[in-house]
Amino acid sequence: MKKTGKHNIGLKPFLLGLVFLFVGWASWAQDAKTVNFELKLSKETLGINERLQVEFAMNHDGDNFQPPSFEGFRVVMGPSQSIQRSYINGKRHYSKTYSYVLAPQAQGTQTIGQASITIKGQVYKSVPKTVKVTAAVDKPSDQVTADDFARDNLHLVAEVSDARPYLNQAISVVYKLYFSQYVNVSHFNPLDNPTYNNFWSQDIPVKQYKAANGTYDGKAYRYVILKRVVLYPQKTGKLELEPLSLDVTVDVPTNKRDFFGSRIYTQANKTVSAGRRTINVKALPEAGKPAGFTGAVGDFDFLVTTSKTHLNASESLQAKVTVSGKGNLKLFELPSPSFPASLEVYEPEFDEKIRTTISGMDGKVSNSYTIVPSYRGKYPIPPINFSYFNPKTQKYHTIDSQELLVNVVEGPLASGANTTAATVASGTNKQIVNSGKNFNFLKTATQLQPLGTTYFFGSKSYWLWLLLPLLLIPLAIIFRKKREAIAQDVVGNKVKKANKLAKRFLSEAKKNMGQKEQFYDALHRALHNYLKAKLKIETTEFSKDKITDLLNEKEVSENHITAFISLLQNCEMARYSPFSDVQMHQDYDKASDVISQMDKQL
């Protein structure tokens, strides 16, 4: 019995460990497969003349979405679907949202019922939420008008990498235009570009505008990087960045639908501004500042070299002072070495190989000195140092060069000069003692012949240059009239510009084949500009009924009109529906063919 008791005592800890291990594994597996499906409301209390935004969000892809009946509300817009995928620290994140805009129909407490969705074969339901609808308010916050809708769904932001830099430390400013899934940005024009006073600045060109997923004010948005600039503050204290302002044309959805049931969009112009940003520039610390500090801020290497160490008199060599690394390479002075007085030194040649990216300057700068010795001997070039401030370590660093020795092996000896330790001078002006051996007699016998005398005045060249300005006057008058005629042809210039835009966007659509949103956005712009060129219609008149009527007036065949309207329909449906690569290729070929055939008829 005692033996059996001891056996039970040893088995219990083992079984207990297995239980904890199983529970921990089950908990981890449950967390890894946790599905979230929730209802989000823009507000819980609103006036009867306001609008309510409702979102059903999930973290896994699902099918068979069933919205609630929205009793007591009228659906103004929706459903709109958005999907976001991202990888953070090696982990996959997924988000899918169905959005609605609702208008209340009666006062009182209303309930947004359950919605359901099927995820991995299992049905999930959202938790109902109540909304209190009050009497009409004086200033509705969610009145769905084109301008207000554009204002609430369009934001320009200036993102600053560091708002508290040191003097001469690089910072970057990235201007992003955020827009929600409900609007489409047609084009934009800059109204006011910042001048960046008290900063050394350089723009980093944005070669192509690409939309990407992001968040603004905690909500899912799309954004486009419009402008990037690198700044080096040249003054301490509070410095203001002037705002960037844009005039943006956006496509805003309306409550109307076309013949095919797709929502009709209207255009609105909105002026957005990034707002003023304040940069608090810190002064470089005085404690530990080296005596030879010239304002270098960053992380650098320093080197002093010579092209050769052994040479003959009257030959030349180059001594190069180089600073390389990352920092304000264009904004400080290189240290100057001291050369022996017996060496003839010319003014340095400055060279820079600098690449400026969004993180700042990177590369090297150098001064190259040409040195010509006149006499035989050994000439030491004393070491020099270079000091800089590193913002990462917040300390000053000093790098010392090595002493260099120039050995002139052949040549005349300087009379009374010490050839083993030449005198060092601080400047390049030196008094050189010459020996008598340096002088030679020059030959005085010459064989000179007189040259024929020619006069420019009265020659053919003289009269040609005299009359040439008079001959150019008629050509200048004809050229000026031609330019004025082109400038006055406003309609013709618009047509030419629209034709170029149509070809450009059609080419851009071909490049973005396989990327649904970019492809159909470029295709839509190409079709739009083609019509603008051929039918001479403005963007405010851009509706399918108007297009159909104008094409019929131009006697375009019914098949081509139907095909063109179908392409526009596909461009609009692509925002909300999945389109395959095959469909994109078919739409591109169809667009090229339709434009070609219509161009012949028009």
From TrEMBL:
InterPro entries the record matches: BatD
Origin: domain of life: Bacteria
Transmembrane segments: 462-479
Record keywords, A-Z: Membrane, Transmembrane, Transmembrane helix
PANTHER family in the cross-refs: BATD, PROTEIN BATD-RELATED
Protein name: BatD protein
Species this protein is from: Sediminicola luteus
Taxonomic placement: Bacteria, Pseudomonadati, Bacteroidota, Flavobacteriia, Flavobacteriales
